[in-house]
Amino acid sequence: MRLFVALFFSLLSISPSFASSTRLTTGDPDTTCTSTTSASAPADTTLAKAHRPGAPAASAVPLAAADTLGPHTRNAQGRISDYTVAPGVTWHYEKPRPFSWLLHIPRDLGQFPGYAFRKDNARTFMGLAVSSLVLWTADQAITDAAQQFGRYVGLKEASTQKTLVYIPFHIGTANLPFEFNVPDNLNSSFYFLGDGWTHLTVASSFWIYGGIKKDNRALRTSSELGEAIFSTGLVIQTLKRLTGRQSPYVATKDRGEWHLFPSYDRYQHFVPNYDAFPTGHLATAMATITVIADNYPEYHFIRPLGYSLMGLLGYSMLNNGVHWASDYPIGIALGYAFAKIAVRNGRTRVEAPLDPAAHGSGFQTMPRRKPWYRQGNFSPYNYGPFTGASWSLRW
Predict the structure, then answer these.
(1) Residue 260's domain spans which residues?
(2) Centroid of chain to Cα 224
(3) What's the CATH code of the domain at 276?
(4) Is-contact 136 326, C-beta < 8 A?
(5) In this structure, is residue 16 part of a structural domain?
(6) For residue 87, how many other CB atoms are within 10 A of its CB?
(7) Residue 369 domain-assigned?
(8) Could you give the CA distance from residue 266 to residue 244 in angstroms, rounded to a whole number?
(9) Residue 181, in any domain of the structure
(10) Residue 288 contacts by C-beta under 8 Å, 6 or more apart in sequence?
(11) Looking at the domain assignment, is residue 184 inside a domain?
């Protein structure tokens, strides 16, 4: 994973440039915008400034000088906030406040039903239901085949790790230790791709890079990773505690038993007996890949690399008996949905006028909506003997 992070930022340092003349008409940041773009100019040409009354008729700026302003320009505070990711497509990112992602989790959870349960998602839900059912009928055969292949190539089934740090911590009867483990075999290394420490490292890397480079997009990506991963985790854990499906390595019958609505104490007493469905590892991995890929669409290697690593993670969990194949579709879909919600709320589409020279930098940022926790309506009331105030929030 350290290699993946280093590779990502080394490629990220190569910023693609687009020489285009664009006019965008936008309403909502998520709507499709119409644009008129011109092809990129050859490297030895010059860019002419627009003629203005009292100005020289044809002053020229070398293309190399214009590229220093480039698609990723710094604002008056020295921060990079506007990013041109394709001809006619520019996004604006505000610098997130520290730990603001924690405040965004309730907003994302509130927006999830409206985002997911739309009429145009009917086929998606049908596909998730059918694929989960088909995989469930073949779960035992798939798991047996995956483990047989692992034995054939010499890949250990056991997911074993070495504990480097362990600090015991209890809340009531719940055992919630702080521990940091590292894998000690190849299958465990694949499984570690979905570990929380892996995604924390990725998010922290964006935060450190954004802080050093004053890069708002990197800082916002780190913040969105936090809110998407934790929002996904809350829903995944809720579903696990409602469905109570056995993991393959402790299953008492083919495809495992389902203990619906296990009590809290029963669940905590032996977690593997109840927490198979849906997968949290693949959900978290999908959320991470989607946030990064959506914020950096000009880097086309992100999704192929990320999905390949997800494939290794998915196989390792079949081989070590942690999950069934039918645990995957719902988990992956949840990670994808919360990542999309986080990205949608974290950036704004930018308009570009036809004559950039007449408008300073040439970009006008569309107005941003207030955070959800500032959109409430405060209303005092006086009903008979009762006096007070109410605060209402509209998602």
Answers:
(1) 100-156+189-346
(2) 6
(3) 1.20.144
(4) yes
(5) no
(6) 18
(7) no
(8) 10
(9) no
(10) 199, 202, 203, 225, 228, 229, 306, 335, 339
(11) no
Q: At what angle do helices 280-295 and 216-243 cross, to 10 degrees?
A: 160
Number of domains in the chain: 1
Report d(CA 104, CA 113) in Å as an integer: 15
Q: What is the pLDDT along the chain (395 residues), one digit of tens a residue?
A: 443 444 444 444 444 433 333 333 333 334 333 333 333 333 333 333 333 333 333 333 333 333 333 457 787 778 999 999 888 889 999 999 988 899 999 999 999 999 999 999 999 999 999 999 999 999 999 999 999 999 999 888 776 777 878 888 877 777 777 777 777 778 888 888 888 889 989 999 999 999 999 999 999 999 999 999 999 999 999 999 999 999 999 999 999 999 999 999 999 999 999 999 999 999 999 999 999 999 999 999 999 999 999 999 999 999 999 999 999 999 999 999 999 999 999 999 887 554 445 444 444 444 556 665 566 665 565 555 555 665 555 54
